[in-house]
Amino acid sequence: MTRAERATSDVAIVGCGPVGALLANLLGRAGLAVDIYDREREIHPLPRAVHFDGEVMRIFQSAGLAEKIAAVVRASSRGMHFVNGEGRTLMIRRGIDGPGPHGWAGNWYFHQPILERILRNGLARFPNVRVHLGHEVASVDDLDTRYVVGCDGARSLVRQAVGSRHVDLGLHQPWLVVDLLCDPANPRVQALPDHTIQLCDPARPMTVVNVGGERRRWEIMLMPGDDPARLTEPAIFWPMMARWLGPDDARLERAAVYTFHSVVQEGWRKGRLLLAGDSCHQTPPFLGQGMCSGMRDAANLAWKLAAIVKEGASDTLLDTCESERLPHVHTFIELAVRLGAVLQETDRAAAAARDRRFEAGAEMFDYPQPQLGPGCRIDAPPPVGTVFPQPRLPDGRLMDEAIGQRFAVVGDADIVVGFHGDAVLLPDVGRDWCERHNIRAAILRPDRYIYAVGRDRQELEAATLGLARSFGLACSRPSRP
Ligand SMILES: Cc1cc2nc3c(=O)[nH]c(=O)nc-3n(C[C@H](O)[C@H](O)[C@H](O)COP(=O)(O)OP(=O)(O)OC[C@H]3O[C@@H](n4cnc5c(N)ncnc54)[C@H](O)[C@@H]3O)c2cc1C
């Protein structure tokens, strides 16, 4: 009997951290038989991530968990301010007022164990998902399943089996992470800013984050001469934070040293083995985007696995995960590394020269909106390969609610109505957006990235022939003559 014949599930996920748990929810919702394993029984109690963006909230929506998650996280319309040692603002990552392009606030702050609890509880909705906690996967050969996805973090076992090539993007720096529980009635706590501060002080770079509720986080760069073993001692780190709070103002939840890395792996697939999340990329957290990138991997992978298992699409579709996602994640890591160079400058003369560069005023920037690399999209410049926004429909629902896990055609009703195929047709939805981009309609993939755009129906339908030819995906039938 071959392994495929022996397979007891469609997909085995190694690692039930945030990325694995989200992937299992997405696959569970699509009706696939999933086994998910984690060596630990309990959710990791020490949070690492504190922020996710509006696109990730939209992915939670597609997992049917957005409302539950929105109830326990903090939406922020404030940006991230890079401030020098004298308190002058050098750069600002803009905030977004109200719902952003994804139909949700653009930035969310959270306590990671609470988010992970919701993701894990979400799995109980699916009899087709079996959760194996306290189960360390010792070898991928032990997994009788059609596909294995390594969501097993930075020291991934699955990555070793894939044999990926490690590409070092240059930044490796230890930082101390201090999480505090603060009394909201305390005047010093009330005086803390709501926005995130990146303190670009050459004497001691730091990050200060309002996580939400009573939680605040300080991330403090280790300087030459620091003893990492002693830095977690309250007597050592409290004086570093004295300008904001002291030990009488807050309780310590934890203090731990992490080394921030900037690394990508080349080779995300070998046969039935695939990678997602920290197993295939790691970024310094200066943009709060490491987990977010892993969540995007999960969304990219989930609809492709579902199309293969449920609709008989070609499994070459899985080769497009790396070709699409690697350039995308690379853009975020490169920006985080550049921001790290601004923040982590400890040479006083170089820091003064840096500050002079921003003398004319603070530089404003947004998250990048990279195009997916080549893969399951037509070969054309953006907006093809970028994520389509999520407007509200006239009936008040968010657009994705009307689409589910399908392809969709949006834009000018004259083109959308009469499109031949089994895509969801949404006439006049996103029409303004299309006009602004000088197109009339767009075909969206199930992960809402734009597969093709066009000025007439024939152009769009011709584009879908590639889907059938390359991947066996039937989202449109050829036009009648
Ligand atoms: C200080 C800090 C701050 C950060 N802040 C942010 C932020 O604000 N926003 C953001 O988006 N990202 C942030 N990140 C990055 C983010 O924490 C990670 O990208 C994210 O946790 C990766 O999730 P993952 O599921 O891929 O891997 P992990 O969270 O590492 O999960 C891997 C899981 O696999 C399990 N496992 C491993 N091997 C096996 C095996 N052989 N068998 C069974 N189970 C196994 C582990 O037990 C673990 O549960 C931050 C990181 C740090 C260090």
Written overview of the protein:
By secondary structure, the protein is of the alpha/beta class. Among the domains are: 206 residues, FAD/NAD(P)-binding domain (3-Layer(bba) Sandwich), CATH 3.50.50; 106 residues, Glutaredoxin (3-Layer(aba) Sandwich), CATH 3.40.30. The protein has 16 helices and 22 strands. The strands form four sheets. Strands 17-14-10-13-12-11-5-6-18 form a nine-stranded mixed sheet. The chain has a six-stranded mixed sheet with strand order 8-2-1-9-16-15. Flavin-adenine dinucleotide binds next to helix 2, strand 2, strand 3 and helix 10.
Q: Which keywords apply here?
A:
16 helices, binds flavin-adenine dinucleotide, FAD/NAD(P)-binding domain, 9-stranded mixed sheet, alpha/beta, 481 residues, single chain, 25% strand
